[in-house]
C-alpha cells in the first residue's frame, strides 16, 4: 500500500510536534508531502527541517494539491473549521488539532450565542466530512497517552462501572499573546487547556458505552464556574509567579459533567497552577480506582540546588524554576501520546475505520466547553440538546 | 489554675476519640468529670475505661452538674444544637463535634427550608453562647491536623494570596445505619464527610482575612452537585465494593465555593471512593503551591500478598482489602489533629479567647453545606446572605 | 539500504520479547529472517507468530545461513558464548541477551576459578568478534530505558560528577526451574537479576569517562555479600510468599563497586522482594540527584479490593497479589527500553559504530559479578585486574 | 509519685531539643531541675528559656547535686562516657545522646585499636550503670519515630521473619566544625549519621528476637566501605553543593550487617546527599514489605518558584535551596520521635524497667560502627566477638 501523503497546515509549535511524531511512520506508512504557512520563511524553514518537498502559502492550494491525501490542520484554532471544510470538500482526509473549533469574537458576547456559533462550526465540518466520505481524526493526545490507555484497559478489564472521572490540565499560563484574547483563542483556560481533560473524560464514557451497549454514553448536562483569578483586586498586590496578562478570557475553570447514565466527571483547567503542568485522569469505579498521571509522575525525579544545573535539558512543561525537586518527563511526546495518536490516525484512514479519537468526540468537547461557559455566566446547570 | 472539668455527652465512637485524646492534658489541664449516655451499660463501660467518676443518663443532668465546667458534645448530630443551647444557658463552655447542627427531617423537604432551619439551629446556639459569655469550640480536626497546620504556616510565610483551595474527604461509606437517612444524619456525603474539607477551606480563608485585614474572608456563593451514584441503574448490575444502602441521602458531592474576594475552593466529599480515606487540602497560591496529605501519604508503606498478614494492626480508615500496597497512617489521631484540637480548646477556654476552630466557622460550614444542597437541587448558584 | 536480516536463536520468553520489539523496525530497517530452536514445535509456533520464513533446529545452521546478517542470541545463558563465537566466526553481527556469559558448573566450585572461567568465555567472544570485524551488541535494556536515558541526559547536562550510584533489580523470584541451579543459570540473584543494575551503573561511569576524558571510567574493586535468605532455619517456619526452591545459588546479593576514580556504586539484586519488581537507578551528583524509576513509578496507580478485578490485564512483573494498591507499568517494554535498545543495535550495525550497550560493558558486567562472588565467598574486597 | 528531676549536661542543639520535648511531661512526670554548660552565658540563657532553676558549669557538680535524679547527657560525644560513668556512680539514672561513645583520637589510628577503645568506653559505662542499679536510656530517636514504630507493630503483627533491613540517614553535611575531625567527632558519616539507621536495624532485630525467643538477635559480622568522596581529585573541579571540608573523617559509608540468624541489613550514611535529609527504614519480610519514611514523605508538599517564598518557615533538615518542590516535615520533632523517646525514658525510670532504646543497643551500635571502620580499612568482613 502506498504511504499516506500528509499536508500540514501550519509551521509553528503544533506543526513541529506532528512532523516530529510522524517520524516512526515515515517511509512505510506516511510521507510528509506538503506544508503551508503564510509566512514564507516559516514555511521554508519547516520544509527544510522535515524534508518536505512542497511548500504552500495559502491553505487552499495545499488542500487542492493532488499530492496530498490528508490535511493535518495545525493552524490557529480560529481557522480550523474553514480549512477542515475545504479539505473535506476536496476529498482529503482531515486531522485537526484540538479543539476542533469554537467561537471567535468578543468575550462580551452572549454565551448562548457562542455555544450556537461554535456548534454550527462543528456541524459544518462534520457534514462536509460525512458528505465526502473522508475520515476526521481529532488530535486529542490524552486519548492515546500511555497512562490513560492503561487506565482504559484496566477499566475494561475490571467490568466495573465508572462512577466518577476527574481530570485536569493546568499550568502557569501559555506565553502566547493570542491566548489572552477571545477573538483569537476562542476562550480561556476552559477551552485551551480544558479541551484535553474534557476530551479524556468524554472519550472514556463514550468508550464504556460502546463496549457495553454499542453506543457512546454522552454528556447530558454541564455545571461550570470560571474566573479571572489573577486579576482579582485581592491579589493584585501580591507576588504573582504565573502569567497575569489576560484580556477577556478566564484563567481558571472547573466543570462538572453529568453523563446520560447519571455518572459524573469533574474537570479542572487553569492557568494559575505553579510547579509544572498537571495532566491527570482518575477513574473511580464501582470496584476499583485507577489514576493516570501523564505528568507529574515519579518515573524520574531530579533535584538541584542551583536552577541552572540542568543546563538546556528539558524537564517538563512550565516549571517556573528548575531548582529544588522536579519531576522530569522521561520522553514527553511519548508519555503524552503523540506518536501513538498519529499512528492510529494513519491506520484508521488506511483501514477506513474511525480513529479512537473521532469526530463525535471533537464535537462533544466543543459542546461541553461552551455549555460550560454558558453555565458559568448564568450560574445555572445547562442541559445539552440530546435527541 | 484548676483543671477544666469536662463532661462528655455521648459514649460511642466520637466520645471515645475525645476521651483518648484528652489524655496528655489529664492531671494538669483537664479532668474528665462526667459522661452521659442514655444506654446505662454504655455509660458505665465508658466511665470505667476512662476513669470518669460521674455518670448521667440525661444530658440535662450533666449540663446542670456543678462538677462540670465544659460540655463536650459527642452525641448524635441531630441532638447537637439542643444540648449546646442547654449547656450555654447553664453557663458551661461548649465543645461540639462537627457538624454544629443541620436539618433533620425528610430528605424530600424543600432545600431552601432546610437551609433556613439549619441556620436557625446555628443561630440559637450562637446566641445562647454569646448571651452566656461562654466559649464555643467547634471540633473540626482538619484545622489542627499537622499537615494542614504546616500548610497554614507556609501560606502565612509566603505572603502570597490563596487563589484556589481544593480539599476532600471521601471513602467507601460509613457503615452506620443512621448515616443513610436524612432524618438522623441531616444529609449525606456533603454534610457528613464534607463538613471536614469545607471546614478546612473556610478556615484557611477566614485565617487569611484576619491576618491581612483583621476580619475573615467568608464564602459568598456556592455551586454544588450531589448524586446517589451507587443507586444508578447503570451500575446496579456491576460489582460494587462500597456501601450501597442509602435511603434519601446522597453518596457523592462536589462543591465550588466563591469567597468574598473572588477566590475559589473546590471540595469533594463522597462515599464511593475505594482504597482508603482521602483527607487532603491543597492551596494554590499566587507564588506557590502547598499540598497537605493527612491521608494517604508515604510516611509508611506496607505490602502483603495476603490480606490477613497484618493481623489486627490498624492500617487506615476504610480499606476494603488489606492486601497489596497500603498507606498506613503512623498515628492516625495525631495526624488528624485530635490531641492538638483538644489542647487548643482547653487553652482557649482557660485564656478566654476564641479557639482556632470557632463559632463563626461552625456556622459557616452549615451555611455552605445547605446552600450546596439548595444549589444542587435547583441547578443554580446560591448567593449567601451577607450584610 | 537493505534491511538487516536477523536470525534469532531461541524461541522462548526473551526471543518473543525481541521479536515483538523489532516490529517498529520491520519493513524498513529489519527483516526477521530465521529462528532456531531445538524443539520443533516451539520453532514452528514462533516462526508462524512472527512471520519468519526460515526455521532451524541447530544454531550452527542458522549461523551459517547466507540469509542471516545478524544473530540475535536469546538462547539459555550457558549457550551464549559458544553461539556468539560461532556467529562471529561466520562473519555475522551478534546481539546477545544479558549476561554475555558466565561460569556454568557446580555452585561448590572455587570462586576464583569461576571468575577466570567466565572471563575466558568473555574473551573468546570478544576476540572472535574483533577478528571478524563484526559488531557485538549487548542487550542490556536498562541502558535504554527512558527513565535511565533521561537520567543520563540530566547528568550530562549538569556538569556535575557522579559520586555514588545506587541501582537495583529485585523481585520475588523467577519461576523457571533452571534459575535455581548454578549449572544452568551461572549463579543466582547477583548474576541473573544483578546483571541489569550492575550494567546500568557501569554504563553510566563508562559514559561519564568517555565524555570527559575519552575513555571509560571502569570498576576497580568489588565488595559483595550474598546469601540464601529463604533457606535460613530462622525463617523456615514462617509464612514465605516468595520462591523458596533454590539449589546451590544465592537469592540475595549486595555489591559495592569502587570505580577507578574512587567513586562508588551500591547494587542490590535479590529474589526475596515482594510487591512487584524494583528496577531503579539513582545518581548522587556533586550538584544534584537524579532518580530513575523504571518500575515502580506513579505514572499509573490502581486499586481493587478484589484480586481478580483486573482480569487478564497485565500490571507489572511479579506481584504476588493483584488486590490493594498497585503500580501498573503503562507499557512495560517501552519503559524498560526494549524497542529503543533494538533500534540502537540495528542502527549501530548499519552505521558500523559501537552500540550504546557494547562489548566492553558486556565483559565488565561478568567481571564485576564474578568478582562479587569471589568477594562474598572470601569476605574480602576483590581488586580487578587493570592494566 | 514525684516528678523525675532531670539535670541536662550541655546547652546547645541537642540539649535544646531535649528540653523542648520534655514539655508535655513537665508538671506531671518531669521537672527540669538543672543545666550544666562550661560557657556561663550559654547556661544562663538556656536556664532562662527553659525555666531551670539550677545552673552548673562543671558536670561533676550537676552529677553530685541532690536535686537531680537523672542526668541527661547532651554534651559533645567525646565527653559522653566520662559523664555517664560519673552519673551512674553518683546513683543517677542516665540518658545519653547517640552515639553512646566512641574513639576520640587521630583518624590515622589503627582501626582494631579504635574498636577496642570504643568498646572499653562502652563497657565502663555499662558496668557503672549495672553496679549502681540505675537505668541507662540511649537516646536513639529512630526507635521511637512514629513511622518506625508503625513498621515495628506491622512486623510484629505479620508473624513474618525479617529477611533484610535497609536504612539510611544522609544529607549534605553537618556544618559544625568539630564534625570534620576524628578527635572531636569520633568518626565521620558512619558514626555521626549512621548511628541512627544502624541503631534502627539493630533494634528491630533485637526486638524480633526478644519477642520470639526471649533474647535479642544480634549482629554477627560487618562488611563496610567508607570514602571521602568530596575529596576525590575526579570531582575537585566540579560544582559541589555539599560540605567539602573534612579533615580525617569519611563523608560516605555503606555497611552490610549479618545477624546471628543469618539475615541481613544494609545501611547507608553519608554527608554527600543533596535535597534534604533522608531518614528511612525498610523491612523486607518473608510475607510482606514495610517502608518507614521519617523524611522525606508526602504528608506535606510545597512548591515555590522563588527560594525566599517560605520566609522563615522551616521545611526540613538540610535543603540547599528552598525553591522548587520540597517535602516539608509537618512537625519534625514528633515525626522523628523525640517526645515519644523522652516519655518512654521517664516511664522506664519510674517503672524500673528497660527503655525500648536501651544499653544493649547503645553498645552494639558502637561495636558495629567501629567494626565497620575496621572492615573498610582492611577490606575484610569483620566477625564480632560473640559468646
Written account of the structure:
4 copies of one chain form a homotetramer. By secondary structure, chain A is α/β, with parallel strands linked by helices. The first copy, chain A, has helices at 13-22, 40-49, 59-64, 80-89, 111-132, 146-158, 182-185, 189-192, 195-213, 233-236, 332-336, 338-351, 359-378; strands at 4-9, 30-36, 54-56, 70-73, 93-97, 136-139, 162-170, 219-227, 252-259, 264-270, 278-285, 289-295, 300-304, 324-326, 382-383. Chain A has 13 helices and 15 strands. In chain A, the strands form 3 sheets. A 7-stranded mixed β-sheet of chain A has the order 12-11-7-10-9-8-15, with helices on one face. In chain A, helix 4 packs parallel to helix 5 and helix 5 (111-132) runs antiparallel to helix 13. Chains in contact: A-B, A-C, A-D, B-C, B-D, C-D. The C-D interface holds C 159-161, 163-164, 217, 223, 225, 227, 229-230, 232-235, 238-242, 252, 254, 256, 258, 261-264, 266, 268, 270, 272-275, 284-289, 379-381 and D 159-161, 163-164, 217, 223, 225, 227, 229-230, 232-235, 238-242, 252, 254, 256, 258, 261-264, 266, 268, 270, 272-275, 284-289, 379-381. Strand 12 (289-295) of chain A pairs antiparallel with strand 13 of chain C, so a sheet runs across the interface.
